[in-house]
Amino acid sequence: MSKVPLVIDGYLVQAEPGETLLDAARRAGVEVPTLCHHERTGTRGLCRLCVVEVEGWGRPVPACATEVQPNLVVRTETEALADLRRVVLELLALETDLSLDTGTQALLERYHARPERWGAPLAARREREPVQDNPFFVRDYAKCYTCRRCIDACGEGVQGVWAYATTGRGHAAVPGTPLDLPLPETPCVFCGNCVQVCPTGALTPLAELAAAEGGDA
Amino acid sequence: MDDRPLLLPLLDEALTRRGWLEPADVEAAAREARVPLAQAWEAVRFYPRYRTEPAEKRLLLVDDPVVRARDFARLWAELEDAAPRAEARAGTVYSQGLEAVGPALVIEEGARWRVFAPVQVADLRALAVGKLPPHELETLPAELARNDGVLFEAPDPLPEFPGADALIAAVRDAGLRGLGGALFPTWRKLEAVRSAAGAKYVVVNGDESEPGNFKDRWLMEHNPRLVWAGAALAARAVGARTVYFYVRGEYPAALERVEAARTALEGEGYFEGLETHTFRGGGLYVCGEESALLESLEGRRAEPRLKPPYPAQAGLFGRPTLVNNVETLAHLAWIAAHGAEAYRERRPKLFSISGDVARPGVYELPLGTPLAEALEAAGGGLDGLQAVLMGGAAGTFLRLPDAAELPLDFEAPKLSGDAVGPGALVAFGADRDLWAVAEGIAAFFAHESCGKCFPCSLGTPHLHAAVARRERGPQLEELFLALEQGSLCGLGQAAPWAVRSLIRRFEGVRT
User: Fold this and answer.
1) Which domain holds residue B96?
2) B23-51 confidence digits (pLDDT tens)
3) pLDDT band at B353 (very low <50, low <70, confident <90, very high)
4) What is the CATH number of the domain that holds B445?
């Protein structure tokens, strides 16, 4: 099939048909920030950090969930987009323990985020107790911003066992398990995919935690 | 076609049987609906009515823009005081389509949901000694339809199907648009679904949860035959065999009457060749977003989908689906019966008018009616009014008398969010505190956010906190933009509109 020509940040890009704006931008060397997207999971359009402006369109669109079209003129880094990303990142950092999430920490720096200007946290995420219900990894949802990669990797996206379920609504939405059971009592086969795709360190192998603690001592 | 039973009705059956859900109930429902247990659990942990333990008795003050402008704080204090003595828990519940008859109280005992309106401070005090408020309300009073609207009349005879071409042309010539608020040209949706191949669906969106609106509730309770007629005609026009009527979860009388009308029409042979279903909605504001509504029908968390694809391309169970609001389909039925020309001469639209007017209710007025005239029709004189909340929570404050001559029509808005929308007009007298209304609206959005996208789930609680502090300034504007430009669906996008319009139009009036 023939290539799809479009302009991203002033560069003419020859994209593959069916490709997303995010992938086309990446191949052109333009790094659009994203938190929820992962190449192996179906999660997309949730974090909204990858929204980009397309000339002639109304609201910005998520680059991870928008297919290339011929002759689009796309801007991935404008003042308005930077403002939007900064606000989302600030609220995220205010509400979530990002101490193990170096990727998001880098984004906070890149967008000069100052979470403290929003006052005190409201979502009570940071008060969630870690769940240690299996011999392999800890589920520390104080560190989770509910990108749902783990849920998708476990269910529809990769493994197809459905040992996780999204629970709650709004800022209280968080991964849980069917019937709130401990993981070993769910269909979980401890394949480790969820831990692999977790971007925040909310799911961390116990061995890694032990090593880190040992290193500190 | 998918012949699996739907999950939510299975959960509802168990809920009705026991009053709450045990793990075995959820497992059985998941098995029968042939969905993973995880999916059933997501539904249980999303929709508020699926309790997993015995429910305590709750006294719920209905929290809507009208009561927020008046004595919400006083009523709430009284209820909080009375509840423990009535061995119940005090709480609030957002708009129930009762703005015209409030303040309202819901008493929830097990699966029983009793509504009392209007209630006064003394009624709430009397709850403590076991006395129920004097006015129980099962339906919206039929008399709330205040004038001689054609949409208030039952279709007699039932409109015949004029053929797909003729019907779609009539809908196009009539200029009918989506009256749930989106105002999308109805004929284009019809055409899109009609041109798709294979199995398809029609879904009636009766999930009216937009604060300040109650015209769909009135139609479902008092003229459901007209809406069903529109749905059946639309199904024939697009070539769909199956129709689902999605009724807001907290409207039990509407659910009952929609189902009764369905049974009657089926008996009369009006649905020949069609399969029709009444569906009890999930009971959350976000369920009214059309793609979230479809998710909920499918037994998932009612979370809006990324678009495209639109429901007309890939809707219910991935099939092309026509989703139309209750009022839109009532109009469609009237157009089928009376023709596009008669419709264009009237340009009827239902308005839910409440607040500081003498005769709050549902009014059928021609599109283009100036705002002041609409308010006068309901007995609201301009001299005493400072503002109107137009559209609903996802609407804007208009300042009076500045906006008096504004024609209530589909035309382009001045401020982002200014739109007739579904047709709510909430009037506020000079002494009402608009900031208290805005705070209630912000709290509503924070409560109703589904939790899918980050800007909305994180931004709406902070918007609420900022409005509670009566904050203004550039940082708040940044939050408005992040919500409006960043959120995935209309809920988060619209969350800042009311408070932004208040700041822009009323700043300096009240501090």
Assistant:
1) 58-137
2) 999 999 999 999 999 999 999 999 999 99
3) very high
4) 1.20.1440.230
- Closest chain A residue by Cα to residue B490: A59
Distances, alpha carbon A162 to alpha carbons A143, A186, B305, in Å = 22, 8, 20
- DSSP H or E run through A101: none
Residues B190/B168, Cβ–Cβ less than 8 Å: yes
Across all residues in chain A, what is the average pLDDT? 94
Query: How many structural domains are present in chain A?
Result: 3
Structural domain including A42 reads 4-77
Pick from A114, A210, A133: which is nearest to A176 by CA?
A133
Please report which confidence band the pLDDT of residue B415 belongs to, taking 50, 70 and 90 as the band edges. low
Residue B296 lies in a domain: yes
Do A98 and A155 fall into the same domain? no
Q: Which of A169, A177, A188 to mutate to test the interface with B (most CBs of B within 10 A)?
A: A169
Residue B382, pLDDT score? 86
| Helices assigned H by DSSP within A39-183 | 79-95, 102-110, 149-154
pLDDT value of residue B508: 56
Please give the model's pTM, rounded to 2 decimal places.
0.96
| Tens of pLDDT, residues B454-503 | 999 999 999 999 999 999 999 999 999 999 999 999 999 999 999 999 99
To the nearest whole percent, how much of chain B has pLDDT over 70?
A: 98
Q: Which chain A residue lies closest to B308 (C-alpha atoms)? A: A66
Q: Mean pLDDT score of chain B, rounded to an integer?
A: 95
Residue B43 domain flag: no
B168, B310: one domain: yes
In order, the DSSP letters of A134-168 are: SSSEEE-GGG-----HHHHHHTTTTT-----EEES
Question: Is A110 in the same domain as A131?
Answer: no
Q: Do A172 and B460 touch (CB under 8 A)?
A: no
Q: Is there a single domain that holds both residue A72 and residue A109?
A: no
Q: Is residue B34 part of a domain?
A: no
Residue B30 lies in a domain: no
A71 and A84 co-located in one domain:
no
Indicate if B357 and B329 belong to the same structural domain: no
Q: What is the CATH number of the domain that holds A17?
A: 3.10.20.740
Crossing angle of helices B215-222 and B252-267, in 10° steps, is: 40
Are B369 and B410 in contact by the 8 Å Cβ rule? The answer is no
Q: Are A73 and A84 part of one and the same domain?
A: no
B37–A173 CB contact, under 8 Å: no
B239 lies in the same domain as B336: yes
Q: Which of B39, B461, B488 sits opposite A171 (nearest CB)?
A: B461
Write the DSSP string, B289-330: SHHHHHHHHTTS---PPPSSSPTTTS-GGGS-EEEEEHHHHH
Shared domain for A176 and A134, answered yes or no, is yes
Mark whether B191 and B170 lie in a shared domain. Answer: yes
Q: How far is B111 from chain A (nearest CA, A)?
A: 21
- For the stretch B177-223, pLDDT in tens is 999 888 899 999 999 999 999 999 999 999 999 999 999 999 999 99
Q: Which two tokens stand for residue A184?
A: 């070993």
Q: Which residues of A touch B482 (CB under 8 A)?
A: 83-84, 87-88
pLDDT in tens, B354-411: 999 999 999 999 999 999 999 999 999 888 999 999 999 999 999 999 999 999 998 7
**Per the CB < 8 Å rule, is B458 touching A91?**
yes
Q: Measured between alpha carbons, how far is B123 from B86 in angstroms, rounded to an integer?
A: 13
Q: Are residues B232 and B272 in the same domain?
A: yes
Pairing of strands A174-176, A203-205: unpaired
- Give B510's pLDDT tier (boundaries 50, 70, 90): very low
Lowest-pLDDT choice from A52-56, A87-91, B413-417: B413-417
Alpha-carbon gap, residue A48 to A43, rounded angstroms: 12
